[in-house]
Amino acid sequence: MNSVYGINTQHHSIRLCRKKRFNDLSNHIRQFHGILTPVANLIAHVVNSKVPTAKCFFKNDVQVADPRRSFLCPFRKECSNEYWLPAMSLRTHLIDVHHMNQAMADIKVRKLKKLNKNKPMSMTRNKINEIIKQIESAIKH
Question: What is the reported pTM?
Fold first, then answer.
């Protein structure tokens, strides 16, 4: 999939699933993809409302990844991975791709978590409210 409701790999750096069904879609989106909770809840709501995925709700400038729970590879410049990864996936990535030992990968992930702990979040509330209005309008039609 290249884009779902406007979320795309090029602008949001989010890897998208091919799997169609989940017991708790919102939880999957938050945990596996590291997407902000309000965005995950909106996506789950839209999916449950059967709005076509081609409908664009999330513009390219909307922050969808949660920088406190998902991370870009610290070796991005020499790495082919360009997606946000949850901490455990990043740890595995560092071991498998960058050949770090487990202890060093754990240290790197802990440092990234500490750096991102107080990272300011972009102002998404107004954008989320706009998206909610668009979704409600799309569901009514």
Answer: 0.71
